[in-house]
Write a structure and sequence with these properties.
heterodimer, A: 249 residues, alpha/beta, Rossmann fold, six-stranded mixed β-sheet, four-stranded antiparallel β-sheet, 11 helices, 26% strand, globular, B: 289 residues, mainly alpha, two-stranded antiparallel sheet, 2 strands, 72% helix
Chain lengths: 249, 289
């Protein structure tokens, strides 16, 4: 098992955001985590890749409220709940964050090099750069441009490209389709399938259920901090209760 | 007169640029408004005075030692006073004010309020078009320009510079790229204090060393950062030369001008805040949804 999450519980101050989440992702899979706004999807990723723990450390002793995190996260069989976020990347567990978050004032090139931070200078990462350009030719054209001036779709491609520069075994992508035009959305999903074909396992967080279920091997449905259903897309879509209550279809 | 103003403006601009860039770096990366920044600049100046005048060390050695000691002091202060309360922005601000006052009082008690001086590294002067320009002024100008180029190279061309810029833009995402943001913050403090100390070493032969010498550069630096746009390195650079030249013009052209230099800087600051609060190169911090 590449990723295994057992009984993950996260509270911000007194609000329980995640309530005993368990999920698994096997090598080579494309798994989605879907659910309505505020279900806690992003928090699952943030907890897995160490950002919740980081926030907890940073907030200690401030008026920001206490963050608690419990449960186990195993990556390639090794527990990583105590591993700081910046070391988790090194293991090959890479997180492409919500809202893309490029370094807006830095050039496309610098953004990509920031993704390759752990792997040395330009010489050592030329192969990775070439792979990213092959997948997203538009980034090569925009190399010197300040990333804040890219279109939404291009920024998403940059965010994914930057994550690929971190040499992921498991790539967690948080809501890549949000705020994009339908055509661009489809383009982004196509690229995700292409990335998966190159051997990268993907955990995809999305709200856009209809288009996601046709791409994935398995899915988890999250609602109010609990996983309330899991399975293949078709099966989930056939379940009347899940369709109406949780997927809003 | 014109040449005086140009040379003086260039030196002042470069010195303020070095101070303001160091200040902006720490502000961007560690979210610290470091009021003690120019007090550390003063510390370097005092240490050079102690080393060269009181202990009789060669001037260059005294300067090198002063820079190293000031950086160490900055790091110790950061670890002891700032890092434990780093997420309380107001408390950090107050702590840096306290550090600055402490340094001022330490030097006041140790040396009194006397005006002290350090001899120039090079003697002699040059006469161009009737204006006397000392070699020390030219040296200070050259060195500060070299340092500015060096800072730019460090930020734009090195891997650590990249980590520093990334962390300044988005700490959380920098974390996700494998950058240890706490170490980057520590490094930034070292670079920032190092810049302040080296700036002190460059200009100390040109200025008087006294316990309130940190006040004027502090006011200029804050005005520059507001003018240039909070957290913008280019802004700090451009703002520094604008205000550096403004100060030279006021000092040279107006009678009693040197009493007005702070008020010019503060007026600029107020004008910018009224007309264009984000400054010349400011980023409007709107969140994309």
């Amino acid at each position: 098992m590449l990723l295994e999450v057992n009984n993950l519980t996260v509270c911000y101050d007194k609000a329980m955001i995640l309530n005993g989440i368990s999920l698994k992702v096997d090598t080579g899979e494309l798994v989605s985590l879907v659910g309505p706004n505020g279900a806690g999807k992003s928090t699952v990723l943030r907890a897995i890749t160490g950002l919740v723990a980081w926030e907890k450390r940073m907030k200690r002793g401030t008026t920001g409220g206490e963050v608690t995190i419990e449960g186990d996260v195993l990556f390639e069989g090794k527990p990583i709940s105590q591993t700081p976020a910046h070391e988790i990347v090194r293991l090959g567990l890479v997180h492409c964050p919500e809202r893309r978050r490029p370094f807006r004032e830095m050039s496309v090139q610098d953004n990509l090099m920031a993704g390759a931070y752990l792997f040395g200078g330009k010489g050592q990462v030329q192969d990775d750069l070439d792979k990213v350009f092959q997948l997203f030719p538009v980034l090569k054209k925009r190399l010197g441009q300040v990333s804040g001036t890219l279109s939404g779709g291009e920024q998403q491609m940059l965010a994914v490209g930057r994550a690929l520069m971190s040499r992921p075994k498991l790539l967690c992508i948080d809501e890549p389709s949000t705020g994009l035009a339908p055509l661009m959305r489809q383009e982004v999903f196509n690229k995700i399938v292409e990335i998966r074909r190159t051997g990268v396992t993907i955990l995809l967080v999305e709200q856009e259920v209809a288009s996601v279920f046709s791409l994935t091997d398995r899915n988890y449905v999250l609602s109010s901090g609990r996983i309330i259903a899991q399975g293949k897309g078709d099966d989930l879509l056939q379940d009347e209760v899940i369709r109406k209550t949780y997927l809003g279809l | 007169m014109l040449l005086d103003i140009i040379i003086d403006g260039l030196i002042k601009g470069s010195v303020y640029a070095l101070l303001a860039i160091g200040f902006s770096l720490v502000l961007g990366v560690a979210r610290i408004i470091n009021i003690a920044h120019t007090a550390l600049f003063m510390t370097a100046a005092y240490l050079i005075y102690i080393g060269s005048k009181l202990m009789g060390l060669p001037l260059l050695l005294a300067m090198a030692a002063a820079v190293v000691l000031t950086v160490l002091l900055g790091l110790v202060v950061y670890r002891l006073f700032i890092q434990p309360i780093q997420e309380h922005e107001a408390a950090v601000l107050i702590a840096t004010i306290a550090v600055a006052m402490m340094l001022q009082e330490v030097f006041l008690m140790s040396f009194g309020g006397h005006y002290l001086g350090v001899p120039p590294l090079v003697d002699g002067y040059l006469t161009i078009m009737g204006a006397k320009i000392t070699y020390q002024h030219l040296l200070a100008l050259g060195l500060s320009l070299v340092m500015l180029v060096g800072v730019r190279f460090f930020l734009m061309q090195t891997r650590l510079g990249l980590a520093l810029r990334s962390t300044a833009q988005d700490r959380e995402v920098a974390n996700l790229m494998g950058m240890d943001v706490n170490r980057v913050a520590l490094l930034t403090v070292a670079v920032s204090v190092g810049l302040a100390a080296m700036t002190g070493a460059i200009v100390v032969p040109l200025i008087t060393v006294e316990p309130t010498m940190w006040m004027h550069p502090l006011i200029m630096m804050l005005a520059i950062v507001v003018l240039g746009g909070l957290g913008s390195i280019e802004g700090s650079f451009v703002g520094a030369y604008i205000l550096g030249f403004a100060e030279s013009l006021v000092v040279f052209m107006l009678p009693m001008g040197s009493f007005l230099k702070d008020s010019v800087a503060l007026s600029v600051m107020i004008l910018v805040l009224l007309i264009r609060p984000e400054g010349l190169f400011g980023v409007s911090f709107e969140e994309e949804r």
